[in-house]
């Protein structure tokens, strides 16, 4: 694990679905950080860039995309979920 003097919670609020105040989310974040072999701030920056890129590729606002991670032994699944309630309203043509 890489030591980073800055707190890991700094900037996590910009990624929906990532709350480092909850124990389960914090453990998932630490496992992800260990797997990527990055510091906490680098892992957070990487997640934020992935989050922004997924939203950009789908043409959605970043608030409509939530993040989660699942670990199965050595396997890692990054999950980006679309929150349909946060999608912008569609224009209907008559």
How would you characterize the overall build of this protein?
The chain has 94 residues and is α+β, with helices and mostly antiparallel strands. It has one domain (12-85). Helices cover 35% and strands 17% of the residues. The protein is built from 2 helices and 2 strands, in the order H-H-E-E. Strands 1-2 form a two-stranded antiparallel sheet. The longest helix is centred in the middle third of the chain and has 19 residues, at 40-58. The chain is elongated, with a radius of gyration of 15 Å. The mean pLDDT is 79.
Give a brief outline of the structure.
The protein has helices spanning 23-36, 40-58, and strands at 65-72, 75-82. The protein is an alpha+beta fold. The protein has one domain (12-85).
Mean pLDDT: 79
- The chain-level structural class is alpha+beta
- Tally of DSSP helical segments: 2
Described by strand count, sense and barrel closure, the largest sheet is:
2 strands, antiparallel
Strand order of the main beta sheet, please?
1-2
How many β strands by DSSP? 2
Radius of gyration: 15 Å
Beta-strand portion reads 15-25%
Count of individual domains: 1
- Measured between the Cα atoms of the first and last residue, the distance is 58 Å
Show unreliable segments: none
Fraction in helix = 25-40%
| Secondary-structure element order, N to C | HHEE
**Shape field:** elongated
């Amino acid at each position: 694990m890489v030591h980073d003097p800055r707190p890991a919670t700094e900037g996590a609020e910009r990624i929906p679905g990532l709350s480092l105040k909850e124990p389960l989310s914090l453990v998932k974040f630490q496992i992800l950080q260990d797997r990527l072999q990055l510091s906490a701030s680098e892992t957070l920056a990487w997640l934020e860039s992935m989050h922004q890129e997924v939203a950009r590729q789908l043409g959605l606002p970043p608030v409509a995309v939530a993040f989660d991670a699942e670990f199965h032994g050595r396997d890692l699944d990054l999950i980006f979920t679309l929150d349909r309630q946060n999608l912008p309203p569609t224009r209907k043509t008559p």
